[in-house]
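General statements about sequence and structure are easier to judge against a single worked case. Part of our work consisted of pairing the sequence of a single chain with a tokenised description of its backbone. The amino acid sequence and the backbone structure tokens for this protein are reproduced below.

***
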Amino acid sequence: MKGFRLAWKKFTRDRLAFTGFVIIFVLLLAALFAPVLAPYPEDTFQIHPADRLQPPSAEHLLGTDSMGRDILSRLLFGTRVTLVIAVIAVGVSLLIGVPLGLVAGYFENLFSEGIMRVADIFLSIPQVILAIFLAQSFRPSIRSVILALSITYWPWFTRIVYAETRALKKRAFLEATEAVGAGSLRTIVLHVLPNVSSSIIVRSSIGMGFTILTAATLGFLGVGAQPPTPEWGVTIAESRQFLPDAWWYATFPGLAIFIVVMGFNMLGDGLRDILDPRIRRGFD
């Protein structure tokens, strides 16, 4: 408990990290209470031709889109789509990448070498380009986005866990564990995994932001979520033909993506400073 209070104190003293935490907390609240917070919850799918492309006003705080739907309401419901994509994609990447990284880092054999060579092949291709290619290979949908992001992101976890595990194998405590006859599975689960968990947490936080940005890119290019889904990238894509007159149409979804991605990045930096004892930025 004392350790948690100390970590929280250090975390709150990092203004950027705490700001990121607040942004993510607000995002979670918006997703959870979207039906209550949205001024026009029915505008997720319904259209109102008479109200199309209305500028921000007291009636529509962020204006309306080309179908007369309230942009604020669609942004709030879009947080649900965004979080679902990011959480599932990062979660699947964790389930694939972390075990492979542990196996490749702990054992020294042909199978371990093969894992890392496959990961290197994926890492040699820009993730956005690979994700676009994979998403185009499937039917455009949220499921396709999640699948494409999961396939392209797992090597990042594998590479990080592999490097951390290799370094741990040289530590005395791990050599002592092996010397007393502990099995490989027990050693990996009880001793290696807890020691690499901080790097996994940091990468997951940063990965959430990058996944949200990539998902929005896929939606913008038309190979991700499809209309009338209130996904932020899709909304920006729909707004292109109405710029610059209907400036609010693209501006507010773009700001939402920017703020959320920055929030996850700032949170990841703060977690790194707290969880990694080798890195401090004026806390001690």
In short: The chain has one domain: 2-36+63-275. Residues 2-36+63-275 form a domain with the MetI-like fold fold (CATH 1.10.3720.10). DSSP finds eleven helices and no strands in the chain.
